[in-house]
Amino acid sequence: MATVSDLNKGSYMRYNGEVVQVEELQHRTPGNLRAFYQIKMRNIRNGKLAENRFRPGDEVEMLRVETKEYQFLYTDGNSLVCMDNETYDQIYLDKVLLGDSVNYIKEGVVLLIVFENGTLPITAEAPAHVVVNVTYTEPGLAGDTATRTLKAATIETGAEIRVPLFINTGDNIKIDTRTGEYIERVK
User: Beta strands 79-84 and 90-94: pairing type?
Assistant: First the structure.
């Protein structure tokens, strides 16, 4: 067991039976009162924030985690099949761990997966930006670059996003995987 003073931002711990990640940690020493730690934690499974005060000597269950890069191969039901590029081992990763970014990633993308005790994946992170191909959108017209008006477009993963009017079917675009927003056209 570790004490609260061993924690830092980004640490993983078990709190009320759930795996949480420390987002903010403040050591406070108010006037005549005893010192305490104010910790803001995010639940890994549902994304909810929790905040609690701990005394400096309180024990917490700190998790030993390992981060590895895995390549996304294909989708199998509610799971993503990913491969370790060093050992070629394949794992099944639950789509829920990636959140909404699962709609914007395509085969071959490298994911960062965090494992507890080397076997159980507890969270996964897609790259911040990916380049995808537009499979369908209404044709653009000459001179449509002056305003910031957006239109619907379907990308190769099947997701629908909003793009500027000058984007055409077959164009490669860069999008933000966290929000699904268009960033730029790629030549």
Answer: antiparallel
